[in-house]
Automatic annotation (TrEMBL):
InterPro entries: dTDP_dehydrorham_reduct (IPR005913), NAD(P)-bd_dom_sf (IPR036291), RmlD-like-bd (IPR029903). Belongs to the dTDP-4-dehydrorhamnose reductase family. Keywords: NADP, Oxidoreductase. This is dTDP-4-dehydrorhamnose reductase. One of its GO terms (biological process) is dTDP-rhamnose biosynthetic process.
Length: 276
C-alpha cells in the first residue's frame, strides 16, 4: 500500500511515517512547504497513486488560535475539507486526526464518539468545523479524536517536565483538568489497526486507557524518571490563566483498546533513555 501523510513532519506524523516504514509500507510524509493543505491543487497532486491518506496537518497552537482564528480555520477546516475532497476524487481511503477540544469539557463522564460537539475555544471551533467538512465531503473517512499527545518528534509536556526538573526544586502543575496522556506511537498503531480491522467511516476515539490530571501526569513522569514526585505540587487552572479556555474534563470513551497511559509513558521514557 502507498500512504500519504499530510502534516507528516509533525510530532504524530513523524511517528506514523516511521511505523509504516518499519512495516515495509510505501509512505510519503509531506510538510506544509511541499503540500500546503490550504491548496486543493497541491493536495490533489500529492495524492496521485496513494491508497490511504492520513491528515495530520493542523494549526495546533491552541492559545494563538484565539487571535488568529481565520488562519487556523483555513488549515483545520478548509485544509481538512481539501484532503477529504481530493481523497474522494482519487478513491483514496482517508483518516483525519481530530481532538477532544471539539467537546465542551464540562462533562463528568467520558465523551462517546457520538456526543455532540460544543467547542469552547477558537482551536476547538476550527477542529470541529474540520470534522464536519470531512464528514460532508467524505463519509467513508475515519475521524480519530485524540488528546494530550506526547512523542519524540515534537515539543511536549513530558520533555517540558523533565527539563524543568533540572532547573527547579519544585513545580506547580494544574490538578483540576482531567484527561488521557497518549503516546503518538500508540496512536499511530491504532490508525493501522482500525484500517486493518475495516473500521467504518465516522468518529473514533484514540486516547490511552485510564485518566489523570496534568499534575498526576507530571508526578508519574518524575516517578518513572527516578525523581521525587512530591516535587510536583498541585494548583488550579485559575492560577494559570491562558488565552484559550482549557477543557476541565477531556476523557474520551469508546477507545479501541489502547493500553493504559502509565504503561505507555514507561515505554516512551525507556525509548528516550536508550537513545541518550
Ligand atoms: N498535540 C496534541 O496534544 C494533540 C491533541 C489532540 C489532537 N491533536 C491533533 O493531532 C494532529 C497532529 O498533531 P501534532 O501534535 O503532531 O501537531 P504538530 O506537531 O504541530 O504537527 C502538525 C503539522 O501540521 C503541519 N501544517 C501546519 N500547517 C499546514 C498547512 N497549511 N499545510 C500542511 N501542513 C501544515 C505542520 O507542518 P510544517 O511543520 O511542515 O509546517 C506540522 O508539522 C493534529 O490534527 C492535532 O490537531 C493533537
Amino acid at each position: 500500500m502507498r500512504w500519504l501523510i499530510t502534516g507528516g513532519r509533525g510530532m504524530f506524523g513523524t511517528d506514523l511515517a516511521l511505523l509504516l516504514q518499519a512495516r515495509g509500507e510505501g509512505v510519503v510524509a509531506v510538510g506544509s512547504s511541499s503540500c500546503d493543505v490550504r491548496s486543493l491543487d497541491a493536495v490533489r497532486a500529492a495524492m496521485r497513486d496513494i491508497d490511504v491518506v492520513v491528515n495530520a496537518a493542523a494549526w495546533t497552537a491552541v492559545d494563538d488560535a484565539e487571535a488568529h482564528e481565520a488562519e487556523a480555520f483555513s488549515i483545520n477546516a478548509t485544509g481538512a475539507r481539501n484532503v477529504a475532497a481530493a481523497a474522494v476524487e482519487s478513491g483514496t481511503r482517508m483518516v483525519h486526526i481530530s481532538t477532544d477540544y471539539v467537546f465542551d469539557g464540562a462533562a463528568t463522564t467520558p465523551y462517546g464518539p457520538e456526543h455532540p460537539q460544543d467547542p469552547r475555544s477558537a482551536y476547538g471551533r476550527t477542529k470541529a468545523a474540520g470534522e464536519w467538512a470531512v464528514r460532508a465531503a467524505n463519509p467513508d473517512a475515519l475521524i480519530i479524536r485524540t488528546a494530550w499527545l506526547y512523542g519524540e518528534h515534537g515539543p511536549n509536556f513530558v520533555k517540558t517536565m523533565l527539563r524543568l526538573a533540572g532547573e527547579r526544586e519544585t513545580l506547580t502543575v494544574v490538578d483540576d483538568q482531567m484527561g488521557q496522556p497518549t503516546w503518538t506511537r500508540d496512536l499511530a498503531d491504532l490508525v493501522l489497526r482500525l484500517l486493518a480491522d475495516g473500521a467504518r467511516g465516522g468518529y473514533h476515539h484514540g486516547t490511552a486507557s485510564g485518566q489523570t490530571t496534568w499534575c498526576g501526569f507530571a508526578q508519574e513522569i518524575f516517578r518513572l524518571a527516578g525523581l521525587d514526585p512530591d516535587r510536583v505540587l498541585p494548583c488550579s487552572t485559575s492560577e494559570f490563566p491562558r488565552p484559550a479556555p482549557r477543557p476541565a474534563y477531556s476523557v474520551l470513551a469508546g477507545n479501541s483498546a489502547m493500553r493504559d497511559w502509565r504503561t505507555a509513558l514507561g515505554g516512551y521514557l525507556a525509548v528516550q533513555s536508550s537513545q541518550r
